[in-house]
Write a structure and sequence with these properties.
Layout: H1 18-33, H2 38-48, H3 51-68, H4 73-80, H5 84-95, H6 100-110, H7 115-124, H8 136-140
Helix pairs in contact: 3-5, 3-7
Length: 141
């Protein structure tokens, strides 16, 4: 059995001043929203985020998505390869009113396509294309 080690995203232990943190977060949002098309936004994220960061964000989105669509913790854990304690964290956050914009976005998106179609797109974000040779990059490592 082949196990793939994916390093965790690292953040400096040195804390930023609150004002500095707010400013750089604001600037990131401004930069991202300046891209007018979905393709430009996707390209920005592909260029700007590491594969690990993209996977981490996609899994977070998928966890919330699956919770909102009444998947069991076991189903989520098996599909996304995340711990049940991670799922519980997001379940509690949703229960306490967090992630409201994400909740609204998922509900709006569901009117256009089925939940499984949306989930498949989320899980494939940043992944190599389907078909023969799609894992060639991994074997080269």
């Amino acid at each position: 059995m082949l196990y793939l080690f994916i390093p965790m995203t690292r953040v400096s232990r040195k804390q930023l001043k609150k004002k500095t943190k707010e400013l750089i977060e604001h600037n990131l949002i401004i930069a991202f929203t300046r891209f007018k098309t979905k393709e430009k936004q996707r390209d920005f994220l592909k260029d700007f985020l590491t594969d690990t960061e993209k996977l981490m964000l996609a899994k977070r989105f998928a966890i919330v998505f699956m919770i909102l669509h009444n998947y069991s913790f076991r189903q989520i854990s098996n599909k996304l390869r995340v711990s049940q304690s991670t799922i519980l964290k997001y379940w509690k956050e949703l229960k306490n009113g967090k992630h409201e914009e994400l909740r609204r976005m998922i509900k709006v998106n569901n009117k256009k396509e089925s939940p499984l179609d949306t989930l498949e797109k989320v899980l494939q974000f940043g992944m190599p294309p389907r078909g023969r040779g799609r894992w060639r990059w991994l074997y080269k490592m």
